[in-house]
Amino acid sequence: MTQTPSRVCVLDSSTDGGKRTDDSKIHEEFAGNHGRPQLLRRLLSGAIQKRSPVPQVTDRRDPDPSRMQMPQGNPLLLSYTLQELLARDTVQVELIPEKKGLFLKHVEYEVSSQRFKSSVYRRYNDFVVFHEMLLHKFPYRMVPALPPKRVLGADREFIEGRRRALKRFINLVARHPPFSEDTILKLFLSFSGSDVQNKLKEAAQCVGDEFMNCKLATRAKDFLPSDIQTQFAVSRELIRNVYNSFYKLRDRAERIASRAIDNAADLLIFGKELSALGSDTTPLPSWAALHLSTWGSLKQALKGLSVEFALLADKAAQQGKQEENDVVEKLNLFLDLLQSYKDLCERHEKGVLHKHQRTLHKDGLMKRQAVSNREPESVEQLESRILEQENMIQTMELRNYFSLYCLHQETQLIHAYLPLTSHILGAFVNSQIQGHKEMGKVWDDLKPKLSCLFAGPHNALTPPRSPQDGVCPH
């Protein structure tokens, strides 16, 4: 992870001496050039005093006061288990029949929350607004990505894939500790009015983001470990490796489930062809009349085998569908979570950290302008601008620490989800065991029905020898 710039340490009393030394040099140079040391001393001392650890926040507060209570112990540490996270809520997202609008058809989803005991109808654009408000209110948290918008000519496979992705998205959000206690989640899952998008925007925009409402925002640095940058560099590398491995596992699991479904189709066709062969009514030629009874018995046996092969096909299809739901979808859920962590790390570096560095650069330019300025009437304006810039730097420094604070907690959530690996492997093994067991029973039931297919000497029906009997020696 990119190292935090040294300027961030201005909140640490151990670095104040170095800062005052720099300001003193500027003061001396300014005094030499303009002969107004008292004004610049007041300017710089006022800028330093402005660096009190109080963020620029509004007086508006989150309507849910329970989220604002000061946690016990070290608030940086989370103690959630996977079972506790999964138990927060289970949300179902089901496709409802397409409704024809004025010009185009649109897809609607029935979203049902176990926790809120609610069932509401949502369109994809409702999810988009909800996602935007989450990012607005929680820019320093893992907000899962949404599936892509509908493209022209989207088929059922695309729509079903998007439904599954929306279900994963809303369940990850509903189980995320800060999200699960927020007003906008409850609105999205339980508000049944027609203007849900406006309600979401009002609820999110009237209170500001998490930094502006969290009582710990100005103290986030106090809870961070001294080696925070090293910890995140190691953790980020671990998450990157885990993501790459699970991405490959998901691809293999998809292929396995797909092969089971393809196997089901092949077994069904195989049985139908046997049935078609047994139902053939073409008469035998006269030279094959001696085998009339044999061919009739074979046709009768072949016609009945289609039932067993249809059952085999059904068992194979069930196994494939089960592995899609219990293995592939859980892998996709975990991948969505890991991707949201990677996105969060990029937002931290390209967002608050980049803004902080850019503000520091502007601050340096402004102070150099104060030193080289030869117009006394503009000094008052420079004083006001420098104080404003110092305020911005202080706020960005606090936001940077709060971003690191949230990143540390989100890393802990990722590790709380890691035991999902055992759930995934367990579901895969159980599916294989159950599927092979059920199909094995159908094969065993099918074997006795093949006896009439094997005619031996004197019309005795004997099955062929198994391969291990070997070939008779000459």
Description:
- This protein is mainly α and 474 residues long.
- The protein is 63% helix and 5% strand.
- A 3-stranded antiparallel sheet has the order 1-2-3.
- A hairpin with a 4-residue loop joins strand 2 and strand 3 (118-123).
- Helix 2 (37-49) runs parallel beside helix 13.
- The chain is elongated.
- 23% of the residues are buried.
Helix content: 55-70%
Give me the secondary-structure category.
Answer: mainly alpha
Low-confidence stretches: 1-71, 457-461, 469-474
- Helix/strand order: HHHEEEHHHHHHHHHHH
Radius of gyration: 35 Å
Number of discrete helical segments: 14
Strand order of the largest sheet: 1-2-3
Q: Return the average pLDDT rounded to an integer.
A: 79
Distance between the termini: 75 Å
User: What share of the residues does DSSP label as strand, in percent?
Assistant: 5-15%
DSSP summary, beta strand count: 3
What overall form do the CA principal axes indicate? Answer: elongated
Sketch the major β-sheet: 3 strands, antiparallel
